[in-house]
Design brief:
The chain is of the alpha/beta class and 287 residues long. The chain contains 15 helices and nine strands. It folds into two domains: 2-160, Rossmann fold (3-Layer(aba) Sandwich), CATH 3.40.50.720; 166-283, Orthogonal Bundle (N-(1-d-carboxylethyl)-l-norvaline Dehydrogenase, domain 2), CATH 1.10.1040.
Length: 287
């Protein structure tokens, strides 16, 4: 299968490497060309323009940061001109309405569209164990199932376009909720002089435990947020999208609204591109 992958950030790069490693032909494009150099060193083709990658591909995978980036890369006259007959698979995190609008614009020029946002980080992408949530038709799910299975043990068809986008936001809201709650509890334990090992031993054996606590604990204890799996800036974007979606469904969002200023303060500290565990610097600042 010949694949054009647009957007080689942290997860996009890992997905490109995974697909190439199992035999697919991958061509990548990224607006910041320097981010494609490691992929080029691995033998992955790099296009200097998005339409060059699209023109020769069976399908186009979008791993771009947001809807604005998608519009800037894909919905240009030159890119739209080569989309006829191509399937665009949107794998980033965007809002339901943004996904539906994207579908309409792609179909207007004769292209096809489905969404398949993923949950997981670099380790899961490289191992092919991401959670892939598909929004589209049953025929599209069947057609692209080999591709989805290259990235996930059990891809799931969620429903029509837009439903997978919402599900992804619901899950990403939990990322923000869990790290903020864990950072706050850990900060209290540390400041009260209670051994972290005691806190973690009880937590691990309780119904309160989430695997992300164990994963992020070393970062919090060492305050090392380099080499992120998911940045604070991207989590902030997803929280904003979730708030809009949830409000549109009449939900009370005050708990998430409380996390937003924590993320804003963390970004103001210059940690927008750091791992999102860096909110610990705001929750429990150094004394």
């Amino acid at each position: 299968m010949t694949i054009a992958l647009l957007g080689t950030g942290l997860l996009g790069r890992a997905i490109a490497e995974r697909l190439q490693s199992i035999g697919h032909s991958v061509t990548v494009y990224n607006r910041t060309a320097s981010k494609t150099r490691p992929l080029q060193d691995c033998g992955i083709a790099v296009a200097t323009r998005p339409e060059q990658a699209i023109a020769q591909a069976d399908c186009v995978i979008l791993m771009l940061a947001d809807a604005a980036a998608i519009r800037a890369v894909l919905l240009t006259p030159s890119s739209l001109a080569v989309l006829r007959g191509k399937t665009v698979i949107q794998m980033g995190t965007i809002a339901q309405e943004e996904s539906l609008t994207l579908q309409a614009e792609i179909e207007q020029v004769g292209g096809l569209y489905c969404e398949a946002p993923v949950l997981g980080s670099l380790t899961e992408a490289k191992a092919g164990t991401l959670f892939v949530m598909v929004g589209g038709t049953e025929d599209q799910f069947s057609q692209w199932l080999p591709l989805f299975r290259a990235l996930s043990r059990e891809p799931r068809l969620v429903g029509p376009v837009g439903k997978a986008a919402i599900l992804k936001l619901a899950l990403n809201q939990l990322i923000a909720a869990e790290i903020s709650a864990f950072a706050l509890s850990l900060g209290l334990v540390q400041r009260a002089g209670i051994p972290v090992d005691t806190f973690m031993a009880i937590l691990r054996e309780s119904a309160l435990f989430a695997p992300t606590f164990e994963k992020k604990l070393p970062r919090l204890l060492t305050r090392d947020y380099q080499h992120p799996n998911f940045s604070t800036h991207h989590l902030m974007k997803d929280v904003e999208l979730f708030l809009k979606e949830a409000a549109g469904y009449g939900l009370i969002t005050s708990t998430v609204e409380g996390i937003r200023p924590v993320l804003e303060q963390t970004i103001a500290l210059g940690l927008g591109e750091a791992d999102y565990a860096s909110i610990y610097e705001t929750v429990n600042p150094k004394t």
